[in-house]
């Protein structure tokens, strides 16, 4: 009986690709939100994400510093 193990690496590889795709989708949606707040000057949908997508790179790609600044302005805004 001949056993072939050519597909044994496929499940982990597909899982990694799925996670990376989910991160890209989350970044795209976060950038759209920042764009709607006029806090992102560049295109919301065009970005490059290396593999592995480490957290500091993901935060920078999202524009998280813009989001934190925006939320800070809401906290310090006097009530109307």
Automatic annotation (TrEMBL):
Keywords: Signal. GO terms for molecular function: iron ion binding; oxidoreductase activity. InterPro entries: Ald_Oxase/xanthine_DH-like (IPR016208). The keyword Signal applies. Gene3D superfamilies: Aldehyde oxidase/xanthine dehydrogenase, molybdopterin binding domain. It comes from the Eukaryota. Residues 1-16 form the signal peptide. The keyword Cell membrane does not apply. This is Uncharacterized protein.
